[in-house]
Design a protein that fits this description.
about 90 residues, alpha+beta, Alpha-Beta Plaits, 4-stranded antiparallel β-sheet, globular
Length: about 90
């Protein structure tokens, strides 16, 4: 299943975010990072992850805990818009 993470940090945390990203990267156990995009204004990035439905939720908690001292992480389940339209049409 696809999840969009929105990662947000305060200006005073920028250097810590850069250093930790260089040290441990953005990919975590059980999750496949499809792509990461930075907000050109700074302080935020968007990361699309493919996470198996049967993945232990503790792995997601562990991944977020690695970062939650320097940034806020919002995790939103997403799907392809065309697939969503087909699914909604089949529910009529």
């Amino acid at each position: 299943m696809l999840y969009m993470n929105i990662l947000t940090w305060a200006p005073d945390k920028r250097d810590a975010v850069i250093e930790r990203t260089k040290k441990i990267g953005l990919e975590h156990e059980g999750m496949k990072v499809i792509g990461t995009w930075a907000d050109v204004d700074g302080g935020r990035c968007f990361q699309l992850n493919d996470i198996p439905r049967d993945m232990d939720p503790a792995l997601s908690l562990k991944a977020n805990f690695t970062w939650n001292d320097i940034m806020k992480i919002e995790t939103i389940p997403v799907m392809d818009a065309a697939e969503m339209i087909k699914l909604l049409e089949s529910m009529k």
